[in-house]
What does this fold into?
Amino acid sequence: MSIAENIRRVEDRIAEACARGQRDPAAVTLIGISKQKSAADILRAIEAGLKHIGENRVEEGISKIPQVREAISEAATWHMVGHVQSRKAKHVVKLFDVVQSIDSVRLAQRLSRLAVDAERELDALLEINVSGEASKYGFQGYNWYQDAAVLEGLLDAYRVVIQLPNLKVRGLMTMAPLGADESTTRRVFGDLYELREELQSATKSQLPELSMGMTDDFELAVEEGSTMVRVGRAIFGERT
Ligand SMILES: *Cc1c(COP(=O)(O)O)cnc(C)c1O
It folds into this structure.
């Protein structure tokens, strides 16, 4: 199957999941995650109509984003979805449109300062570690609905981050545990959905975006309210 065919197939599956979840397909943005894939593959995807591309390493963005921008007139929106080390934050502000992986107040402050210096606005999502796995980045969100200290920690961080200049906090991002069963995966996505409601009502702010769902679980994520699915392998093929 070609990349173009893969995109159509993923879009169809999103539409079917929307029908099951009684959701509008226009409310779900497909982001193709091109990590470890070439600029040529990204160009094929954009030519096939994909509008959003994500990378998880700053270095890959540095090498591929300028190549892609130079080669094609259609503008894609670039999402950073992996952990950002603070010394690489300046490249992120230069290259990406959205940072989905804000995982500390410090990183948010740094990106905000750099965005002010660059006289631009940067869209941002807060990455929440809902599953509690030690291997995952993100603000600690495990069991937030039962553990008042966890919710308080999230609210404190959120209140600081939404005040930062030139950083527009648009929503939350999470990852389900690798290889988890369906009910565990749904619970992680449902927890993020409820956390969004909680943060919005506690602070009278708006968080329109929920980024959740990858190749193995994007249909469940859509049924649970995802507005952004981050799909790599089902579009670009297996990684080596
Ligand atoms: C790799 C990656 C994806 C896509 O994973 P697939 O399983 O290939 O769909 C999504 N989100 C993040 C943060 C990733 O690192």
